[in-house]
């Protein structure tokens, strides 16, 4: 079991979601539950599937509505009703057959008033099968990557059934009386197939990508580097050198894979972290500027206004000015 004692937050038994003690995140306000994937010893797997009805029996709607920031992937499969969810300042809704996708590090909350049933799939980021150098481009072109999924997606009817069958099979296989290593291997391959199905479902609703496997590989490495280094590196040239490619190659890969320039992607990620810190911490604007790599608060203010459309103080007042608005009535689909 995790050694967090009385501070542990128990949503489920296996694995637990626990408050995280992380120097990167610990300054977030108490209103945001810092949650990490910490399975108890008797379970011990890096992936867990939980029935929402079982989760509700173990907690309260008020607890589920708490703002949370998780360090693992969380996918919600809606089987019945309509699910509402806030993810990084945006409301999303999904009806039966749809999936909601919350990435590690995103601030989100459940809507306790939503009447829905379904499944929660949780897994550590490193649980996705590692790719060897030779096969990386092909795997990425196939789309077996959780980070590539949109926040909401709705597979076709036949694919909905296939995805739910896969999910239920994984839940059963996690309890097989075999070694942890064998179950991990089985679940990892099943997860890869499920992510591929979801990626294909997402692609059907999007324009056909002209990105090559090499571009997709480069963009995936760039995205990973941004997550790791954005508080210190704000120039695209630094990422190009880190990845061993030219700035032109990096920009071409980003444009082909994501439809935006590498600079726009990096700026959006920095701005998102600034919004999170402004909304969910009591740190000063100057402290936030320093935390995310700006040498002068004035430079941060200019950057934030350009990216978000208002100065940091106004954004914070707007976020603190009242309750989170109600979720929309129309379903947002992908």
TrEMBL record:
Q: Which residues form the HTH araC/xylS-type domain?
A: 220-318
Q: Which Pfam families match?
A: AraC_binding, HTH_18
Q: Which UniProt keywords apply?
A: DNA-binding, Transcription, Transcription regulation
Gene3D superfamilies attached here? Homeodomain-like
- InterPro entries from the UniProt entry: AraC-bd, Homeodomain-like_sf, HTH-like, HTH_AraC
| Claim: Transcription regulation is one of the keywords in the record | yes
Q: What GO terms are given for molecular function?
A: DNA-binding transcription factor activity; sequence-specific DNA binding
Give the span(s) annotated as Disordered.
314-334
Q: Does the record bear Transcription regulation in its keywords?
A: yes
Give the matching SMART domains.
HTH_ARAC (SM00342)
Instruction: Provide the protein name.
Output: Helix-turn-helix domain-containing protein
Please report the organism this UniProt entry assigns to the protein: Pseudomonas aeruginosa
């Amino acid at each position: 079991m995790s050694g967090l004692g009385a501070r542990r937050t128990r949503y489920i038994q296996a694995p637990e979601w626990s408050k995280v003690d992380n120097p990167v995140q610990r300054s977030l306000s108490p209103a945001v539950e810092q949650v990490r994937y910490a399975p108890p010893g008797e379970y011990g797997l890096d992936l867990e599937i939980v029935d929402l009805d079982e989760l509700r029996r173990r907690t309260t709607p008020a607890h589920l509505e708490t703002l949370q920031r998780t360090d693992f992937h969380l996918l919600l499969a809606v089987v019945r009703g309509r699910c509402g969810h806030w993810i990084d300042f945006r409301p999303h809704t999904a009806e039966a057959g749809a999936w909601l996708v919350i990435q590690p590090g995103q601030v989100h909350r459940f809507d306790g008033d939503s009447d829905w049933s379904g499944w929660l799939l949780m897994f550590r980021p490193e649980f996705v099968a590692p790719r060897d150098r030779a096969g990386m481009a092909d795997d990425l072109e196939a789309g077996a990557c959780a980070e590539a999924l949109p926040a909401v997606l709705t597979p076709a009817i036949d694919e909905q059934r296939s995805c739910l069958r896969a999910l239920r099979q994984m839940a059963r296989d996690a309890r097989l009386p075999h070694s942890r290593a064998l179950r991990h291997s089985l679940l990892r391959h099943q997860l890869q197939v499920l992510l591929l199905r979801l990626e294909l479902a997402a692609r059907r609703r999007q324009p056909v990508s002209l990105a090559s496997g090499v571009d997709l590989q480069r963009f995936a490495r760039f995205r990973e580097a941004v997550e790791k280094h954005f508080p210190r590196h704000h120039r695209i040239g630094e990422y190009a050198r880190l990845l061993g490619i030219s700035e032109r190659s990096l920009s071409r890969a980003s444009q082909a894979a994501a439809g935006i320039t590498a600079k726009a992607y990096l700026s959006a990620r920095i701005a998102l972290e600034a919004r999170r810190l402004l909304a969910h911490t009591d740190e000063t604007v100057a402290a936030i500027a320093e935390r995310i790599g700006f040498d002068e608060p004035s430079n941060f203010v200019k950057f934030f206004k350009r990216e978000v459309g208002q100065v940091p103080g106004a954004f914070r007042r707007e976020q603190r000015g009242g309750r989170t608005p109600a979720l929309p009535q129309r379903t947002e689909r992908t």
